[in-house]
Amino acid sequence: MDTLIAVAGGTGLVGRLVTEEVRRAGATPVVIARSAGVDLTTGAGLDDALTGVSAVIDASNVETMSGATSVAFFEAATGHLLAAGERAGVRHHVALSIVGCDRVDLPYYLGKRRQEELVAAGPVPWTVLRATQFHEFAGQLIDRSPGPLAIAPRMLSQPVAAAEVAAALVACALAEPAGLAPDLGGPQPERMDRLVRRELRRRGSRRLVVPVPMVGATGRQVKDGGLLPGRGARLGAQTFDAWARG
Fold it and tell me: What is the pTM of this model?
């Protein structure tokens, strides 16, 4: 019998890679996205999309700097996914989360924290996989910066290849529910402002990098290693420079 795995956010950066990885694993992906006629924020189309699905991988995302917007999105999306999953008899709900969302009070992380709470208290057996920032994050910071400047937080993280995260999510979905899985991080710690400089060089850009220190309580949380993978973490193999070389 064909194994169906639903991928929420299946058209996004990680979702597309997860969809490809599901096919490589010999299963059939079911893409959950507005472009596929499914709206996570309202639940429209979810019951039909999850018919016959054995596992859900939630790689959905919202682009926001607002904590309230992040919480509202993940409350709605996660609630609808879990309720529809229970009705459909989904055996395993896998959620992609972020390393440090439980200890660093960045606004976006508040939504991921709420997502984890709902999954853990929900009606579907679950696994939560926390991953560090992706290698692509440096480029995203550049693309969001105005004019000739590239604004980059002076923070220490341990970026990981999105493709390795996708493979880990599919492996989780095909295994038994495990609760909170070990963190997944990249092979080595990196300063984000330095990665932005390297990404600009790779692009052949002369834009000036403006490192911005993180201040206040959040800055202290990051300085204390809040974005680094914890004890017992799994580490990916691909470094940022190897990823940049393609």
Answer: 0.95
